[in-house]
Amino acid sequence: MPRKVSCSFCGDPIAPGTGLIFVRKDGVIYNFCTHKCERNMVGLNRKPRKVKWTEEYRKEKALRTKK
Ligand SMILES: [Zn+2]
User: Fold this and answer.
1) pLDDT-based confidence at 2, cuts 50/70/90?
2) Where are the zinc fingers (C4-type) (predicted)?
3) Distances in whole angstroms, Cα of residue 57 to Cα of each of 10, 29, 34, 65
4) Residue 17, annotated as binding a ligand
5) Which of 9, 24, 51, 54 is most enclosed, with most CB atoms within 10 A?
6) How far, in Å, is the centroid of ligand 1 from the Cα of 34?
7) What CATH architecture does domain 5-66 belong to?
8) Å from CA of 32 to ligand 1 middle
Protein backbone atom coordinates (compact mmCIF):
# COMPACT_ATOMS: atom_id res chain seq x y z
CA MET A 1 0.00 0.00 0.00
CA PRO A 2 1.49 3.33 -0.99
CA ARG A 3 1.43 5.79 1.83
CA LYS A 4 -0.23 9.13 1.35
CA VAL A 5 2.50 11.73 1.38
CA SER A 6 2.55 15.46 1.06
CA CYS A 7 5.22 17.63 -0.47
CA SER A 8 7.99 18.55 1.98
CA PHE A 9 8.16 22.02 0.53
CA CYS A 10 4.76 23.25 -0.57
CA GLY A 11 2.62 20.84 1.46
CA ASP A 12 0.47 19.68 -1.44
CA PRO A 13 -0.62 16.04 -1.38
CA ILE A 14 1.35 13.82 -3.73
CA ALA A 15 -0.53 11.13 -5.64
CA PRO A 16 1.05 7.67 -5.29
CA GLY A 17 3.48 7.01 -8.12
CA THR A 18 4.16 10.67 -8.83
CA GLY A 19 6.52 13.25 -7.45
CA LEU A 20 10.10 12.64 -6.42
CA ILE A 21 11.95 11.59 -3.33
CA PHE A 22 15.14 13.28 -2.27
CA VAL A 23 17.43 11.79 0.35
CA ARG A 24 19.92 14.11 1.96
CA LYS A 25 23.45 13.02 2.75
CA ASP A 26 22.56 12.80 6.45
CA GLY A 27 19.61 10.51 5.72
CA VAL A 28 16.73 12.99 5.91
CA ILE A 29 14.10 12.14 3.33
CA TYR A 30 12.11 14.77 1.47
CA ASN A 31 9.13 14.17 -0.76
CA PHE A 32 8.61 16.70 -3.52
CA CYS A 33 5.64 17.04 -5.84
CA THR A 34 7.57 18.78 -8.60
CA HIS A 35 11.06 19.86 -9.60
CA LYS A 36 10.01 23.37 -8.68
CA CYS A 37 9.77 22.34 -5.05
CA GLU A 38 12.98 20.35 -5.17
CA ARG A 39 14.89 23.27 -6.65
CA ASN A 40 13.58 25.68 -4.05
CA MET A 41 14.40 23.45 -1.10
CA VAL A 42 17.63 21.80 -2.27
CA GLY A 43 19.06 24.06 -4.95
CA LEU A 44 18.05 27.47 -3.70
CA ASN A 45 17.99 26.59 -0.01
CA ARG A 46 14.76 28.43 0.64
CA LYS A 47 12.61 27.96 3.70
CA PRO A 48 8.99 27.02 3.02
CA ARG A 49 7.68 29.73 5.33
CA LYS A 50 9.52 32.39 3.36
CA VAL A 51 8.02 31.34 0.04
CA LYS A 52 4.55 32.63 -0.71
CA TRP A 53 3.11 29.68 -2.61
CA THR A 54 3.61 27.05 0.12
CA GLU A 55 1.19 25.65 2.67
CA GLU A 56 3.61 26.56 5.44
CA TYR A 57 3.50 30.22 4.45
CA ARG A 58 -0.30 30.28 4.40
CA LYS A 59 -0.40 28.73 7.88
CA GLU A 60 2.06 31.34 9.14
CA LYS A 61 0.02 34.11 7.59
CA ALA A 62 -3.20 32.83 9.13
CA LEU A 63 -1.54 32.86 12.55
CA ARG A 64 -0.14 36.32 12.04
CA THR A 65 -3.39 37.89 10.87
CA LYS A 66 -5.44 36.33 13.66
CA LYS A 67 -3.92 38.51 16.35
ZN1 LIG B 1 5.56 20.77 -3.77
Assistant:
1) low
2) 7-37
3) 9, 21, 18, 12
4) no
5) 9
6) 6
7) Roll (2.30)
8) 5
Neighbouring C-alpha atoms within 13 Å toward the C-beta of 34: 7
Asked whether the beta carbons of 38 and 32 are under 8 A apart, the reply is: yes
Nearest CA-CA partner of 7 in 52, 35, 37, 28 = 37
Taking the C-alpha atoms of residue 17 and residue 27, their distance in angstroms, rounded to an integer, is 22
Q: How confident is the model over 20-60, as pLDDT tens digits?
A: 999 999 999 999 999 999 999 998 999 999 999 999 999 99
Determine the distance separating the centroid of ligand 1 and the alpha carbon of 66, expressed in angstroms. Answer: 26
